[in-house]
Design brief:
Blueprint: H1 3-17, H2 19-29, H3 35-54, H4 58-65, H5 67-94, H6 97-104, H7 107-118, H8 125-143, H9 154-183, H10 185-207, H11 218-245, H12 248-254, H13 258-269, H14 276-294
Helix pairs in contact: 1-11, 1-13, 2-5, 2-6, 2-11, 3-5, 3-10, 3-11, 5-9, 5-10, 6-9, 6-13, 7-9, 8-14, 9-10, 12-14
């Protein structure tokens, strides 16, 4: 791996590592904006960025012409994106940034399980061990080693929503797999984004409070732009630049350091403690994800 690729990976993982911390501050700590409003704003800003970035390319113009044949599939991808965004932000508003980073990154585990159940893909020994390790790590993170805490507390509900968000992300990945090969990753994201926005609007009207965006502080708006433009826009551009330079398997394994960044940032900016259970859970989860990714 050359120095430029390594630099791109370190920059990307640092950007994505700030995601749960930024989200936790906006919808949990400061409460300046509701989860539904932030999800909608995130997708609107990200879509504008991606559309402007891609609309000048010939391949994007051609893909828009063939869009009619695949619009139902893009609708399904958009619905999965909306579900992920809502579940993630409602979850992190009730839980911790560290939990969000670890639990949402379980999506490779869910992909392996869904691919086995729905697509009859074989699950080898490495994948089975990885799934088992990740489940153990998930339980350690959620319970902090105390299984009596598995009650309907706010944090438990938040963690449960975060696990569901990982499942939604896995469904989105399986739905998008074929179209990424045809259209490319960024184009697939851009073409499904309008459906995501349309689906999110009723949730924002019913559950949100868009009037609060006029009272968001300057720091709040900078964080919203970072969460939308930096993580969802620039972040995905960097990701697909990395995929052009190295194999997908190596790139997927390299982003395992994202939760490590989150743990550090959450401790610095949100005073979330780095407990022994967090360390143990992190080791089990990342080991499990590594084994599943290496088995592909």
């Amino acid at each position: 791996m050359d120095r430029k690729t390594l630099s791109l990976i370190l920059i990307l993982t640092a950007i994505w590592g700030t995601g749960p911390v930024t989200a936790r501050f906006l919808v949990g700590v400061s409460g300046e904006i509701t989860p539904t409003d932030l999800t909608l704003l995130r997708w609107v800003i990200a879509f504008i960025f991606l559309f402007v970035l891609l609309c000048r390319t010939q391949s994007f113009n051609e893909s828009k012409l063939s869009f009619r044949a695949d619009w139902l599939n893009f609708l399904a991808i958009g619905a999965a994106n909306a579900a992920f965004g809502l579940l993630f932000l409602f979850g992190v508003s009730l839980s911790f940034a560290v939990n969000a980073a670890l639990l949402t990154n379980l999506h490779p585990i869910f992909i392996a399980i869904l691919a086995h159940v729905l697509l009859n893909e074989k699950t080898g020994i490495k994948q089975s061990l990885g799934i088992f390790s990740a489940i153990i790590g998930m339980l350690v993170v959620v319970t902090q080693g105390d299984f009596s805490s598995l009650v309907l507390s706010g944090q438990f509900i938040g963690d449960f929503l975060l696990i569901l968000s990982a499942l939604a992300w896995s469904i989105q990945s399986l739905l998008a797999r074929k179209h990424v090969k045809t259209y490319g990753g960024l184009q697939t994201l851009a073409l499904s984004a309008p459906f995501t926005i349309i689906i999110l609007i009723p949730f924002a009207v019913i559950l949100g409070n868009m009037q609060t965006i006029f009272t968001v502080s300057l720091i709040g708006w900078l964080l919203i732009l970072h969460f939308s433009l930096g993580i969802s826009g620039i972040g995905y551009v960097l990701w697909f630049l990395i995929l052009r330079r190295i194999e997908t398997a190596k790139a997927s394994v390299s982003i395992l350091i994202v939760p490590l960044y989150t743990i550090i940032f959450a401790n610095i900016f949100l005073n979330e403690p780095i407990t022994l259970m967090v360390v143990i859970g992190t080791v089990f989860v990342l080991t499990g994800i590594y084994l599943v990714q290496k088995a592909k």
